[in-house]
Design a protein that fits this description.
Length: 228
């Protein structure tokens, strides 16, 4: 559930415009490099107005980050609910699970997408206290639910293996989606692969995770047979 601060925040055109301007700047430069002057210039309001509504840059960042992450996690939970309802007693397919999980990082408004990636990176790297706090509150809940769904889809994998594979998959996809137009994948492949091509990236990411989770058992069995 979203925090009381977000739920009880008064509706305000000014407040919303400040939050949108801040989100745009945070997406471009991160919270540390974004200045209050950047936000003032983007929003077209005074510094005093920002302080009146949010108290400080940190207060503004916390509300922007929390609302964004909460909305993304609510969307994922709704998608998971629909997938589980459609599957009934059967497990949800690995591909469907990860398409719902990756969607906020691959689709939609560019500023929102980049800011979500930034928050998750800071959460994983433990570099920003507020990102870590928000991440534990929302991202971790979705991660636990995802791993639970994967355990039904992949009964051949232990809890340990599921968590390792989930973590490696998330880290790899985040690295690819956050690398920009002149991305490393494009350079290493001489242009044959391009992480800025969203459709290509999405399909490669899905193919990768399906292989990691669904065909891992086959590879392990083959390796044991070769040993004997």
């Amino acid at each position: 559930m979203c925090s009381k601060r977000i739920i009880d925040a008064p509706d305000s055109v000014t407040r919303d415009s400040i939050a949108k301007a801040a989100a745009k700047q945070f997406a471009k430069y991160g919270i540390v490099e974004t200045t209050m002057r950047d936000i003032v210039r983007e929003a077209g309001i005074s510094l005093g107005t920002i302080n009146y509504h949010f108290g400080s840059k940190l207060g503004l960042a916390y509300e922007v980050f929390e609302r964004l992450v909460w909305e993304a996690c609510e969307e994922r939970n709704a998608a998971f609910d629909a997938l589980e309802a459609a599957a009934g007693d059967e497990p949800v397919a690995v591909e469907a699970i990860f398409r719902a999980l990756f969607k906020p990082y691959l689709e939609g408004d560019e500023n929102r997408r980049q800011l979500l990636i930034y928050i998750l990176q800071q959460h994983h790297l433990a570099r920003l206290d507020l990102a870590r706090e928000i991440g534990r509150k929302y991202f971790d809940q979705v991660a636990v639910r995802t791993i639970g769904m994967l355990s039904k889809a992949c009964p051949h994998l232990s809890k340990r293996d599921l968590v390792w594979r989930y973590s490696f998959c998330i880290t790899g996809v985040l690295a690819a989606v956050s690398d920009g137009a002149n991305n490393r994948i494009k350079r290493l492949s001489d242009g044959a692969a391009d992480a800025s091509d969203r459709a290509q990236l999405t399909q490669q990411a899905i193919d990768f995770v399906v292989d990691v989770f669904e065909r891992g058992l086959d590879r392990r069995s083959d390796a044991k047979q070769r040993e004997h």
